[in-house]
Protein backbone atom coordinates (compact mmCIF):
# COMPACT_ATOMS: atom_id res chain seq x y z
CA UNK A 1 0.00 0.00 0.00
CA UNK A 2 1.26 3.49 -0.87
CA UNK A 3 1.10 6.01 1.97
CA UNK A 4 0.31 9.58 0.93
CA UNK A 5 0.92 12.71 2.99
CA UNK A 6 -1.53 15.48 2.03
CA UNK A 7 -2.35 18.94 3.39
CA UNK A 8 -5.84 19.28 4.86
CA UNK A 9 -8.18 20.60 2.17
CA UNK A 10 -11.41 19.64 0.42
CA UNK A 11 -9.67 17.00 -1.70
CA UNK A 12 -7.88 15.22 1.16
CA UNK A 13 -10.97 15.43 3.37
CA UNK A 14 -13.03 13.77 0.64
CA UNK A 15 -10.38 11.04 0.36
CA UNK A 16 -10.39 10.62 4.17
CA UNK A 17 -14.13 10.12 4.12
CA UNK A 18 -13.95 7.46 1.44
CA UNK A 19 -11.21 5.62 3.41
CA UNK A 20 -13.10 5.84 6.72
CA UNK A 21 -16.44 4.89 5.12
CA UNK A 22 -14.66 1.93 3.49
CA UNK A 23 -13.52 0.67 6.91
CA UNK A 24 -9.95 2.03 6.77
CA UNK A 25 -7.84 4.25 9.01
CA UNK A 26 -6.50 7.78 8.44
CA UNK A 27 -3.76 9.57 10.40
CA UNK A 28 -4.65 13.12 11.44
CA UNK A 29 -3.04 15.87 13.51
CA UNK A 30 -4.18 17.06 16.92
CA UNK A 31 -2.66 19.66 19.25
CA UNK A 32 -1.04 16.85 21.30
CA UNK A 33 0.20 14.10 18.95
CA UNK A 34 -0.99 12.60 15.63
CA UNK A 35 -3.85 10.09 15.88
CA UNK A 36 -4.74 7.07 13.73
CA UNK A 37 -8.50 7.27 13.31
CA UNK A 38 -11.23 4.83 12.33
CA UNK A 39 -15.03 4.89 12.52
CA UNK A 40 -15.92 4.09 16.14
CA UNK A 41 -19.13 2.37 15.00
CA UNK A 42 -17.22 -0.08 12.78
CA UNK A 43 -15.74 -2.93 14.82
CA UNK A 44 -13.65 -4.36 11.97
CA UNK A 45 -12.15 -0.94 11.23
CA UNK A 46 -11.26 -0.42 14.89
CA UNK A 47 -9.71 -3.88 15.13
CA UNK A 48 -7.64 -2.95 12.08
CA UNK A 49 -6.22 0.03 13.96
CA UNK A 50 -5.00 -2.30 16.74
CA UNK A 51 -3.42 -4.56 14.12
CA UNK A 52 -1.72 -1.70 12.21
CA UNK A 53 -0.07 -0.46 15.41
CA UNK A 54 0.59 -3.85 16.98
CA UNK A 55 -1.34 -2.58 20.01
CA UNK A 56 -2.30 -4.98 22.83
CA UNK A 57 -6.02 -5.65 22.56
CA UNK A 58 -6.75 -4.78 26.18
CA UNK A 59 -5.66 -1.15 25.83
CA UNK A 60 -8.77 0.91 24.96
CA UNK A 61 -8.95 3.79 22.49
CA UNK A 62 -10.10 7.37 22.86
CA UNK A 63 -13.04 8.51 20.73
CA UNK A 64 -12.55 11.92 19.09
CA UNK A 65 -15.47 14.18 18.21
CA UNK A 66 -15.88 17.69 16.78
CA UNK A 67 -16.82 20.48 19.12
CA UNK A 68 -20.54 20.54 18.22
CA UNK A 69 -21.04 16.78 18.53
CA UNK A 70 -23.81 15.80 20.93
CA UNK A 71 -21.96 13.72 23.53
CA UNK A 72 -25.17 12.48 25.15
CA UNK A 73 -25.50 10.15 22.12
CA UNK A 74 -22.43 8.24 23.30
CA UNK A 75 -22.27 8.52 27.09
CA UNK A 76 -24.53 8.81 30.12
CA UNK A 77 -24.09 10.54 33.46
CA UNK A 78 -22.00 13.62 32.81
CA UNK A 79 -21.42 14.96 36.34
CA UNK A 80 -21.56 18.69 37.08
CA UNK A 81 -17.82 18.93 37.68
CA UNK A 82 -17.23 17.35 34.25
CA UNK A 83 -19.53 19.88 32.59
CA UNK A 84 -17.57 22.68 34.27
CA UNK A 85 -14.25 21.18 33.18
CA UNK A 86 -15.50 20.73 29.62
CA UNK A 87 -16.59 24.37 29.57
CA UNK A 88 -13.20 25.52 30.84
CA UNK A 89 -10.84 23.32 28.82
CA UNK A 90 -12.58 21.90 25.74
CA UNK A 91 -11.80 21.80 22.92
CA UNK A 92 -8.34 20.97 24.24
CA UNK A 93 -5.88 18.32 25.45
CA UNK A 94 -8.22 16.76 28.01
CA UNK A 95 -9.80 13.30 27.57
CA UNK A 96 -12.77 12.53 29.79
CA UNK A 97 -13.91 9.01 30.69
CA UNK A 98 -17.66 8.50 31.16
CA UNK A 99 -20.11 5.62 31.42
CA UNK A 100 -20.70 4.42 27.88
CA UNK A 101 -24.12 4.06 26.28
CA UNK A 102 -22.71 1.09 24.43
CA UNK A 103 -23.33 2.76 21.04
CA UNK A 104 -19.75 2.60 19.78
CA UNK A 105 -18.42 -0.83 18.86
CA UNK A 106 -16.95 -3.05 21.60
CA UNK A 107 -13.38 -3.00 20.27
CA UNK A 108 -13.03 0.71 21.17
CA UNK A 109 -13.17 0.27 24.95
CA UNK A 110 -11.93 -3.34 24.95
CA UNK A 111 -15.02 -4.50 26.78
CA UNK A 112 -15.01 -1.80 29.50
CA UNK A 113 -18.37 -0.16 30.26
CA UNK A 114 -16.76 3.28 30.00
CA UNK A 115 -15.80 5.47 27.04
CA UNK A 116 -12.93 7.96 26.79
CA UNK A 117 -13.91 11.05 24.79
CA UNK A 118 -11.74 13.85 23.48
CA UNK A 119 -12.56 17.08 21.64
CA UNK A 120 -9.25 18.22 20.12
CA UNK A 121 -8.47 21.90 19.63
CA UNK A 122 -6.34 21.57 16.49
CA UNK A 123 -8.05 23.25 13.54
CA UNK A 124 -7.14 20.38 11.18
CA UNK A 125 -8.55 17.82 13.62
CA UNK A 126 -11.77 19.80 13.91
CA UNK A 127 -12.09 20.02 10.11
CA UNK A 128 -11.51 16.26 9.75
CA UNK A 129 -13.99 15.36 12.52
CA UNK A 130 -16.61 17.83 11.31
CA UNK A 131 -16.32 16.58 7.72
CA UNK A 132 -16.87 12.99 8.83
CA UNK A 133 -19.39 13.87 11.56
CA UNK A 134 -18.64 10.53 13.23
CA UNK A 135 -16.97 9.56 16.50
CA UNK A 136 -13.44 8.61 15.47
CA UNK A 137 -11.59 6.07 17.60
CA UNK A 138 -7.90 6.98 17.52
CA UNK A 139 -4.78 5.98 19.38
CA UNK A 140 -1.52 7.83 18.73
CA UNK A 141 -0.36 7.12 15.16
CA UNK A 142 2.86 5.26 16.03
CA UNK A 143 3.87 1.62 16.20
CA UNK A 144 2.86 0.47 19.68
CA UNK A 145 5.44 1.32 22.38
CA UNK A 146 7.44 3.64 20.10
CA UNK A 147 7.68 7.40 20.66
CA UNK A 148 4.41 9.17 19.76
CA UNK A 149 4.45 11.15 16.48
CA UNK A 150 4.27 14.95 16.46
CA UNK A 151 4.80 15.46 12.70
CA UNK A 152 3.37 13.81 9.58
CA UNK A 153 6.92 12.59 8.84
CA UNK A 154 7.06 10.77 12.20
CA UNK A 155 3.81 8.98 11.30
CA UNK A 156 5.24 8.10 7.88
CA UNK A 157 8.40 6.69 9.48
CA UNK A 158 6.32 4.30 11.62
CA UNK A 159 3.36 3.50 9.37
CA UNK A 160 4.63 3.78 5.77
CA UNK A 161 2.98 1.02 3.75
CA UNK A 162 0.42 0.25 6.48
CA UNK A 163 -2.04 3.12 5.90
CA UNK A 164 -3.20 5.03 2.83
CA UNK A 165 -3.31 8.61 4.08
CA UNK A 166 -1.65 10.97 6.55
CA UNK A 167 -3.31 14.38 6.86
CA UNK A 168 -0.51 16.87 7.43
CA UNK A 169 -1.33 19.61 9.92
CA UNK A 170 2.25 20.59 10.76
CA UNK A 171 4.03 20.00 14.06
CA UNK A 172 1.76 19.38 17.05
CA UNK A 173 2.18 22.30 19.43
CA UNK A 174 1.39 20.55 22.74
CA UNK A 175 3.75 17.67 22.28
CA UNK A 176 2.56 15.13 24.85
CA UNK A 177 -0.70 13.19 24.91
CA UNK A 178 -3.87 14.52 26.50
CA UNK A 179 -4.61 14.29 30.20
CA UNK A 180 -6.95 11.31 30.74
CA UNK A 181 -9.51 12.03 33.46
CA UNK A 182 -11.92 9.52 34.94
CA UNK A 183 -15.26 11.30 35.34
CA UNK A 184 -17.31 8.31 36.50
CA UNK A 185 -17.02 8.99 40.23
CA UNK A 186 -17.82 11.65 42.84
CA UNK A 187 -14.72 13.59 41.87
CA UNK A 188 -12.40 13.51 38.87
CA UNK A 189 -9.38 11.20 38.95
CA UNK A 190 -6.34 11.68 36.70
CA UNK A 191 -5.48 8.42 34.91
CA UNK A 192 -2.73 9.93 32.72
CA UNK A 193 -1.03 13.30 33.34
CA UNK A 194 -0.84 15.74 30.47
CA UNK A 195 -1.07 19.36 29.44
CA UNK A 196 -4.21 20.03 31.47
CA UNK A 197 -2.54 19.82 34.86
CA UNK A 198 -3.85 18.74 38.24
CA UNK A 199 -3.77 22.40 39.36
CA UNK A 200 -5.92 23.40 36.36
CA UNK A 201 -8.44 20.65 37.15
CA UNK A 202 -8.58 21.53 40.84
CA UNK A 203 -9.11 25.19 40.00
CA UNK A 204 -12.40 24.26 38.31
CA UNK A 205 -13.54 21.04 39.99
CA UNK A 206 -12.40 21.79 43.55
CA UNK A 207 -10.67 18.51 44.18
CA UNK A 208 -9.11 15.86 42.02
CA UNK A 209 -7.59 12.44 42.64
CA UNK A 210 -4.66 10.86 40.95
CA UNK A 211 -4.63 7.18 40.11
CA UNK A 212 -1.55 5.18 40.95
CA UNK A 213 -1.38 1.60 39.73
CA UNK A 214 -0.67 -0.76 42.61
CA UNK A 215 1.23 -4.03 42.27
CA UNK A 216 -1.07 -6.85 41.17
CA UNK A 217 -4.09 -4.58 40.66
CA UNK A 218 -6.12 -4.47 37.42
CA UNK A 219 -5.30 -1.14 35.74
CA UNK A 220 -8.16 1.36 35.50
CA UNK A 221 -6.47 2.84 32.48
CA UNK A 222 -4.95 -0.24 30.88
CA UNK A 223 -2.35 1.80 28.95
CA UNK A 224 -0.59 2.48 32.26
CA UNK A 225 0.92 -0.93 32.56
CA UNK A 226 2.82 -0.93 29.26
CA UNK A 227 6.29 0.27 28.36
CA UNK A 228 5.72 3.24 26.11
CA UNK A 229 7.13 6.20 24.26
CA UNK A 230 10.46 4.39 23.84
CA UNK A 231 13.27 5.45 21.53
CA UNK A 232 14.98 2.55 19.78
CA UNK A 233 18.45 3.36 21.21
CA UNK A 234 19.80 2.70 24.69
CA UNK A 235 18.13 5.26 26.97
CA UNK A 236 19.01 6.18 30.56
CA UNK A 237 17.19 8.65 32.79
CA UNK A 238 19.00 10.55 35.54
CA UNK A 239 17.33 12.67 38.24
CA UNK A 240 18.35 16.25 38.82
CA UNK A 241 20.35 15.24 41.91
CA UNK A 242 22.25 12.66 39.82
CA UNK A 243 23.63 15.01 37.17
CA UNK A 244 27.20 14.04 37.99
CA UNK A 245 26.35 10.42 37.29
CA UNK A 246 24.82 11.46 33.97
CA UNK A 247 28.05 13.24 32.99
CA UNK A 248 30.12 10.21 34.11
CA UNK A 249 27.97 7.94 31.98
CA UNK A 250 28.38 10.27 28.99
CA UNK A 251 32.17 10.48 29.41
CA UNK A 252 32.45 6.72 29.83
CA UNK A 253 30.46 6.09 26.66
CA UNK A 254 32.36 8.70 24.66
CA UNK A 255 35.73 7.33 25.74
CA UNK A 256 34.60 3.93 24.38
CA UNK A 257 33.65 5.59 21.08
CA UNK A 258 29.89 5.30 21.71
CA UNK A 259 27.86 8.08 20.11
CA UNK A 260 26.09 9.37 23.23
CA UNK A 261 23.88 12.45 23.52
CA UNK A 262 22.50 14.18 26.59
CA UNK A 263 18.82 15.15 26.35
CA UNK A 264 18.36 18.08 28.69
CA UNK A 265 16.63 21.37 29.39
CA UNK A 266 18.23 24.81 29.34
CA UNK A 267 19.22 24.60 32.98
CA UNK A 268 20.78 21.15 32.92
CA UNK A 269 22.48 21.93 29.58
CA UNK A 270 24.47 24.60 31.37
CA UNK A 271 25.27 22.35 34.33
CA UNK A 272 26.35 19.24 32.39
CA UNK A 273 28.29 21.32 29.85
CA UNK A 274 29.05 18.55 27.33
CA UNK A 275 29.41 18.70 23.51
CA UNK A 276 26.54 16.47 22.40
CA UNK A 277 23.32 17.93 23.72
CA UNK A 278 19.72 17.90 22.57
CA UNK A 279 18.12 20.85 24.35
CA UNK A 280 14.37 20.69 25.01
CA UNK A 281 14.09 24.35 26.00
CA UNK A 282 13.39 26.54 28.97
CA UNK A 283 9.77 26.29 30.12
CA UNK A 284 7.63 23.25 30.91
CA UNK A 285 5.51 23.99 27.83
CA UNK A 286 8.58 24.16 25.56
CA UNK A 287 9.97 20.95 27.04
CA UNK A 288 6.67 19.08 26.46
CA UNK A 289 6.35 20.52 22.97
CA UNK A 290 9.86 19.40 21.93
CA UNK A 291 9.98 16.11 23.82
CA UNK A 292 8.96 13.54 21.18
CA UNK A 293 10.67 15.33 18.32
CA UNK A 294 13.96 15.29 20.24
CA UNK A 295 13.48 11.68 21.40
CA UNK A 296 13.03 10.66 17.76
CA UNK A 297 16.05 12.73 16.75
CA UNK A 298 18.04 11.25 19.63
CA UNK A 299 17.23 7.63 18.85
CA UNK A 300 19.43 7.89 15.75
CA UNK A 301 22.44 7.94 18.07
CA UNK A 302 23.64 4.96 20.13
CA UNK A 303 22.85 6.20 23.61
CA UNK A 304 20.55 8.85 25.00
CA UNK A 305 21.29 10.12 28.48
CA UNK A 306 18.35 12.07 29.87
CA UNK A 307 19.05 14.73 32.50
CA UNK A 308 16.39 17.32 33.23
CA UNK A 309 15.25 19.40 36.18
CA UNK A 310 11.54 18.68 36.66
CA UNK A 311 10.96 20.84 39.74
CA UNK A 312 11.82 23.99 37.82
CA UNK A 313 8.93 23.99 35.39
CA UNK A 314 5.56 23.44 37.10
CA UNK A 315 2.63 21.07 36.60
CA UNK A 316 3.26 20.11 32.98
CA UNK A 317 6.48 18.37 34.04
CA UNK A 318 4.47 15.69 35.80
CA UNK A 319 3.29 14.46 32.39
CA UNK A 320 6.75 14.89 30.85
CA UNK A 321 8.45 12.89 33.63
CA UNK A 322 5.78 10.19 33.42
CA UNK A 323 6.57 9.77 29.68
CA UNK A 324 10.34 9.75 30.29
CA UNK A 325 10.12 7.15 33.05
CA UNK A 326 8.03 4.93 30.75
CA UNK A 327 10.39 5.57 27.82
CA UNK A 328 13.25 4.26 29.93
CA UNK A 329 11.28 1.19 30.90
CA UNK A 330 10.95 1.69 34.65
O1 LIG B 1 -3.57 13.19 23.06
C1 LIG B 1 -4.05 12.06 22.98
O2 LIG B 1 -4.77 11.57 23.87
C2 LIG B 1 -3.75 11.26 21.70
C3 LIG B 1 -4.40 11.96 20.51
C4 LIG B 1 -4.28 11.17 19.25
O3 LIG B 1 -5.72 12.26 20.81
N1 LIG B 1 -4.22 9.92 21.81
C5 LIG B 1 -3.63 8.99 22.61
O4 LIG B 1 -4.18 7.74 22.51
O5 LIG B 1 -2.70 9.23 23.33
P1 LIG B 1 -3.51 6.42 23.09
O6 LIG B 1 -4.32 5.32 22.58
O7 LIG B 1 -2.08 6.42 22.77
O8 LIG B 1 -3.77 6.52 24.64
C6 LIG B 1 -5.09 6.38 25.17
C7 LIG B 1 -5.03 6.25 26.67
C8 LIG B 1 -4.50 4.91 27.10
O9 LIG B 1 -3.66 5.08 28.23
C9 LIG B 1 -5.78 4.14 27.45
O10 LIG B 1 -5.55 3.11 28.38
C10 LIG B 1 -6.66 5.24 27.99
O11 LIG B 1 -6.37 6.37 27.17
N2 LIG B 1 -8.10 4.93 27.85
C11 LIG B 1 -8.83 4.83 26.73
N3 LIG B 1 -10.10 4.48 26.99
C12 LIG B 1 -10.20 4.36 28.34
C13 LIG B 1 -11.26 4.02 29.24
N4 LIG B 1 -12.47 3.74 28.79
N5 LIG B 1 -10.97 4.00 30.56
C14 LIG B 1 -9.73 4.30 31.01
N6 LIG B 1 -8.68 4.63 30.21
C15 LIG B 1 -8.92 4.64 28.89
MG1 LIG C 1 -0.08 6.04 22.49
Strand content: 15-25%
Order of helices and strands: EHEEHEEHEHEHEHEEEHEEHEHEHEH
- Structural class estimated from helices and strands: alpha/beta
Task: Please count the beta strands (DSSP E, at least 2 residues each).
Answer: 16
What about the largest sheet? 12 strands, mixed
Helix content: 25-40%
Spatial gap, N to C terminus: 36 Å
Shape: globular
Average of per-residue pLDDT values: 93
Question: Can you tell me the residue ranges where pLDDT is under 50 for at least 5 consecutive residues?
Answer: none
The number of helices is 11
Rg over CA atoms: 20 Å
Chemical compounds bound to the protein: threonylcarbamoyladenylate, magnesium ion
List its traits.
single chain; 330 residues; alpha/beta; 12-stranded mixed beta sheet; 4-stranded parallel beta sheet; 16 strands; 33% helix; globular; binds threonylcarbamoyladenylate; binds magnesium ion
Describe the structure.
The model has no long low-confidence stretch (mean pLDDT about 95). With about 325 residues, the chain is α/β, with parallel strands linked by helices. The chain has helices at about 10-20, 45-55, 80-90, 105-110, 125-130, 150-160, 200-205, 245-255, 265-270, 285-300, 315-325; strands at about 5, 25-30, 35-40, 60-65, 75, 95-100, 115-120, 135-140, 165-170, 180, 190, 210, 235-240, 260-265, 275-280, 305. The longest helix is centred in the last third of the chain and has 15 residues, at about 285-300. Helix 10 (about 285-300) runs parallel beside helix 11. The strands form two sheets. Strands 1, 2, 3, 4, 5, 6, 7, 8, 9, 10, 11 and 12 form a twelve-stranded mixed sheet that branches. Bound molecules: threonylcarbamoyladenylate (TXA) and magnesium ion. Threonylcarbamoyladenylate (TXA) binds near residues 62 and 97.
